[in-house]
Amino acid sequence: MIKLGEYNNLEILRDTEPGLFLGDNEDNEVLLPNRYVPKSFEIGDTIKVFVYLDNEERPVATTDQPFITKGDFAVLRCNAVTKFGAFLDWGLVKELFCPFKEQAFKMKKGGWYLVYCYLDEETDRLVASSKTNHFLDNTNLEVAQFDEVDLIVSHPSEMGMNVIVNKKHLGLVFKDDIYKDISVGDQLKGIVKKVRPDNKLDISLSQIGYRNIEPNAEFILNELQDNSGFIPLHDKSSPEDIKTQLQMSKKSFKKAIGSLYKERQIEIKDDGIYLK
């Protein structure tokens, strides 16, 4: 079966005037236009292509790599807005359509938006939606407390920043746990800090509890080595100074330097930390 919105490994069946016809093992065929035909090939070779609909709503193959595929999230630029909806640049000749009903906020030409790409069952077309929460579900969680997870920064809220967890669930990073600049669409690693009774996920951008001592200590050691063995911070430094220089909380900082001090890797003096 040739799948729209996905990469397909297809066999080269025949060379024709408009391009190569490719097929799967179920006798389905799709055209790879001349502009994408490789310089050298043999009939019977297998080629990896992305399949979508052309301007005449016919399946067509391309060797170009889109910025987003079906079932995925990405930040895309709006190239145009018409009476039908918005058209987004996803790296292919034909732009990705986002109908008005799928826009969390009315899109504007030149704006960048986090969207989800899916196959509309009614029209059998690939479309985008900026209502990303509709495609996330916390009913049956596939993560647990302290799991490392992949994050996509979704949208801000009064409490912090909403994030997409493993492209399946919705999570929240609270303001007090954000110690570096993050923007919508950023892809990060995180830790499940807490699973609430209603299956809401609290996410941390750093390790939790005793788990965070080692990586933060290692980070501080690296900073010391990169700064001639000295950092002008100590346990009396303000949280703002620590956040600015090391992008971590004062609590995490004190745990980390306490660990390093016990291991006799640093000296803590009135003017800062010294590498032994």
Can you say what the CATH homologous superfamily of the largest domain is? Winged helix-like DNA-binding domain superfamily/Winged helix DNA-binding domain
Secondary structure tally, helices: 3
Q: Kindly report the spatial arrangement of strands forming the biggest sheet.
A: 3-2-1-4-5
Q: How many beta-strand runs?
A: 18
Strand content: 35-45%
Please identify the structural class as seen in this structure.
mainly beta
Number of domains: 4
Helix content class = 10-25%
pLDDT < 50 runs, ≥5 residues: none
CATH architecture of the largest domain: Orthogonal Bundle
Keywords:
single chain; 276 residues; mainly beta; OB fold (Dihydrolipoamide Acetyltransferase, E2P); 4 domains; 5-stranded antiparallel sheet; 3 helices; 39% strand
Characterization of the model:
The structure is a single chain. The protein is mainly beta and 276 residues long. The chain has four domains: 7-62, Beta Barrel (OB fold (Dihydrolipoamide Acetyltransferase, E2P)); 73-133, OB fold (Dihydrolipoamide Acetyltransferase, E2P), CATH 2.40.50; 148-205, Beta Barrel (OB fold (Dihydrolipoamide Acetyltransferase, E2P)), CATH 2.40.50; 211-275, Arc Repressor Mutant, subunit A. 13% of the residues lie in helices and 39% in strands. It contains three helices and 18 strands. It has helices at 213-226, 239-246, 250-262; strands at 7-15, 19-23, 29-33, 46-53, 59-62, 73-81, 85-89, 96-99, 112-120, 125-129, 148-156, 160-165, 169-174, 187-195, 201-204, 230-231, 266-269, 272-275. The strands form four sheets. Strands 3-2-1-4-5 form a five-stranded antiparallel beta sheet, with no helix packed on it. A five-stranded antiparallel beta sheet has the order 8-7-6-9-10, with no helix packed on it. The radius of gyration is 25 Å and the shape is elongated. The chain starts with 6 loop residues before the first strand and ends with a strand.
